[in-house]
Amino acid sequence: MKKALLALLIFVPGICFGQTPSADSAMIASIFSEVLVNGECYENLRELCKDVGHRLAGSENADKAIAWGQDKLEGYGFDRVFLM
Fold first, then answer.
1. Of the candidates 29, 30, 44, which has an alpha carbon nearest to the alpha carbon of residue 76?
2. What residue spans of the chain are helical by DSSP H?
3. Average of pLDDT values for 11-27?
4. In angstroms, rounded to a whole number, what is the distance separating the alpha carbons of residues 56 and 24?
5. What 3-state DSSP class applies to 76?
6. Which residue has the higher pLDDT, 84 or 58?
């Protein structure tokens, strides 16, 4: 009885509240299209690789990369940017 109740609690919410696979696919496709059209991923990667350069741990360029990342995230308007 407990196993049946547990199975019911696990599977029923997924069936009742889950989205259909076609809705998930449409959402993923819209996100993908938005990133391709308006995304800055490749430009950010180019900046990090070409402008900052090689980033070995403890090197000067590693510190530059951290500062670059902080500036980039603050420029995007993140509420908080933590450096550790």
1. 44
2. 2-17, 21-38, 41-46, 60-75
3. 68
4. 40
5. coil
6. 58
Contacts of 41 (CB under 8 A, 6+ apart): 35
Tell me what pLDDT residue 28 has: 92
Residues in the chain: 84
Place of tokens 């076609």: 22
Would you say 72 and 44 are in contact if contact means Cβ atoms under 8 Å apart?
Answer: yes
pLDDT digits (tens, 9 = 90+) for 40-81: 888 899 999 999 989 899 999 999 999 999 999 999 999 999
Beta-carbon contacts of 56 under 8 Å, excluding residues fewer than 6 positions away, are 62
* 63 neighbors 55 (Cβ within 8 angstroms): no
